[in-house]
Specification:
The structure is a homodimer. Chain A has 13 helices and twelve strands. By secondary structure, the first copy, chain A, is α/β, with parallel strands linked by helices. The first copy, chain A, has two domains: 198 residues, Rossmann fold; 169 residues, Rossmann fold (3-Layer(aba) Sandwich), CATH 3.40.50.460. In chain A, a hairpin with a 5-residue loop joins strand 10 and strand 11. Chains A and B meet through strand 2, strand 3, helix 3, helix 6 and helix 9 of A and strand 2, strand 3, helix 3, helix 6 and helix 9 of B. Strand 3 of chain A pairs antiparallel with strand 12 of chain B, so a sheet runs across the interface.
Chain lengths: 400, 400
């Protein structure tokens, strides 16, 4: 007995990435080729779109549109942050039944994997014939099991390029520069800044990830040490820096300009750290901070070609796996070659294995002092980002 | 009588751009070909490097190094923010005399043009034989006379791409997004965000430049109107927003988290505006802000090829003009064709004409309500940025 025949539905969920539409287009293109799938519907804004019956016909989209959409950052179907309840699942099955939807592809992070898992488990309980596939994406790169996540490579590329440029900016007008990178709990994206350092004097000179406790005294000592050595310091910090009790650095005992913490999601951590350095290391120091913000996940100018191809493959293979009888789950990447022989293959694992929990940067990648990322991380990271530009410095052939 | 023979010196000054090294390499490459110039020295950190005799030999740099340096953002020689005094000029002439320097190329903005002008005028008073050339650069695009400034096109490209991506991000997870763009007095860079809008529903929905007085009440009305229309709003604001008295918005009557204004250069304006919207339009609104910061002038991933070529030409032509007897001044661009026939030629104008003063965005480019940039600005802007990516939306063929 082969796969069931019926219609399929795809949705996008969670924070967007630069290549989440590659996965969507991978699903659409392969659905065209599939014998099992008769029609493919898109739900606008994820599970919310299913509940609202905001469904569109995706097989009518032209190849030209799909080509452009694939290269367009963020979720073309719209996204949502929502966990489904049991009651909502029952409503979803009614809608699926009405439209004979037997394949459900959900592109998202671990929360989306959890929603997919809930739908899947309740479908089994209710004997509703459904194949559920979770297609991973997240710039945080924090999903379990998979070698890495679609979306991470492009965001990492943005962060690395930003630090490469900022290195030269800071080199030409010296001072202290603090750059805040996305990542509440996992330091993968902050660690990507490490790729900007080619010479020991290159930025970032210090890297702080949320896998370690952030100690203000050590931080100030570190900055002073770097300033003594290079006369400048570019510092990479994760937005999720926290103290020993797990409290975010920028709100532990500090209030922002309006007495509340709502502003802290924007420029507040960088501003706070700048002021901390100024207060302790010297009022006259030139100190600046930038918070990379949403550009990290949506900037269309520097997508990693590797990441784009892999995200497309993840979507395509979810549909390819659909032809196997009674198979569903999360798509994961397995790295089967590294360096010049870098290659990944997709596999499929049970939904519950990716749902709910996340992973952190492996301890072996963080240096002992907790203020840098080890060079070994580059073996893991570099193949994911595509080729970085070759920037240059003058050789400075002596004083005349 | 031809040009005097002697050595030449080049320096870089002011805030870096992505293509300021193109101008430097243009000077170096043309100096190799020049009959008048025997040796070319680079001053580290502009006039400060001359005063310190921190001079390096630039004709020894290899073509491979120069090729890489040209593509590298920021000032390879190091930069400085410094106006020279008469006494310092006298010291500069001593050093020039010692090294037989008869050509001085200074790459920078209007402050650098002023320094060059001071050196030039005092040289004439002192009968010190010297040709002074100012080579323009600034992401602010605010120099007089020239059609536009090297550095602007690449920064404008970054801003446009950032808004193009953010448009899709905001479209997929709706809310209010405020992006703060560099520009204290001139709105050129903020106006570049206008290039991201292809359809009327595209971001930015509102644009505020420092050429107009910023009125909080109008701003809040504008945001509410856009929210009513599209259910979302992406807003482009210049960091130099000010009230009717010329006071910056984020410090008029407001204090930052430490009671001083030093933090305001970072994320504070965006945070302040977010809070303003939240307080007035609704606590439950999803509001975010990003401050693009230094990435606008140093991001190596999205340089405008047009801008890069023109910056190279500006450096090259400064040296080419050196062969004419007793000629010096500022290089400017004259636009001699537009649209598909876009072309610029360099000319030279007296230093004092570019020095000291700056220009603003022409009134004709700002809409009557002062909350948008007119489409006519795109005729001026688009040729400077290089080709932008073609992003796409699903056609959304009806609800099933």
């Amino acid at each position: 007995m082969g796969a069931i025949k019926g219609n399929a539905l795809v949705g996008q969920s969670g924070g967007p990435t630069c290549v989440i539409n590659q996965s969507l287009v991978g699903v659409i293109e392969e659905a065209h080729r599939s014998d099992a799938i008769e029609n493919l519907y898109g739900a606008l804004h994820g599970v919310q779109g299913i509940l609202n019956e905001d469904l569109i016909d995706l097989l009518k989209e032209t190849p030209k549109t799909l080509k452009r959409v694939a290269r367009t950052p963020s979720a073309a179907l719209g996204s949502v942050r929502k966990k489904v309840t049991k009651n909502e699942c029952m409503r979803i099955f009614e809608i699926f039944q009405k439209h004979n939807i037997r394949y459900f592809y959900y592109i998202g992070g671990n929360d989306s994997a959890e929603s997919a898992n809930i739908v899947n488990e309740i479908a089994r309980e209710e004997n509703f014939e459904l194949r559920v596939f979770h297609i991973p994406k997240t710039i945080d790169n924090d999903l379990l099991i998979t070698d890495h996540c679609p979306g991470y490579g492009s965001a990492a590329r943005f962060v690395a390029l930003a630090f490469m440029g900022d290195n030269f900016d800071n080199r030409s007008l010296k001072g202290i520069k603090i750059n805040v990178v996305m990542g509440r709990h996992a330091g993968f994206l902050t660690a990507a800044s490490r790729a900007a350092r080619r010479d020991p004097e290159d930025a970032p000179h210090l890297i702080y990830v949320p896998e370690r406790i952030f100690c203000k005294e050590q931080f100030l000592n570190d900055v002073q040490t770097v300033m003594n050595k290079y006369g400048r310091a570019v510092i990479s910090v994760a937005e999720g820096l926290h103290d020993a009790e797990g409290n975010p650095i920028f709100s532990t005992g500090e209030t922002d300009s309006h007495g509340n913490v709502q502003l802290s999601g924007s420029g507040a951590l960088g501003d706070y750290l700048s002021q901390l350095v100024k207060d302790n290391l010297g009022k006259k120091l030139r100190i600046r901070s930038d918070t990379f913000g949403y550009l990290q996940r949506s900037f269309p100018g520097c997508v990693s070609e590797v990441d784009a191809a892999e995200a497309h493959m993840a979507g395509r293979d979810a549909v390819r796996f659909s032809k196997f009888d009674d198979l569903d789950g999360s798509i994961i990447f397995k790295r089967v070659g590294n360096g010049k022989d870098y290659e990944v293959l997709t596999e499929i694992v049970p939904l519950k294995e990716l749902a709910k929990y996340t992973k952190s940067l492996d301890d072996k990648y963080i240096n002992e002092a907790g203020n840098d990322i080890n060079e070994s991380y580059l073996d893991y990271l570099l193949p994911l980002m595509g080729e970085l530009p070759h920037l240059g410095k003058l050789q400075e052939f002596g004083v005349i």
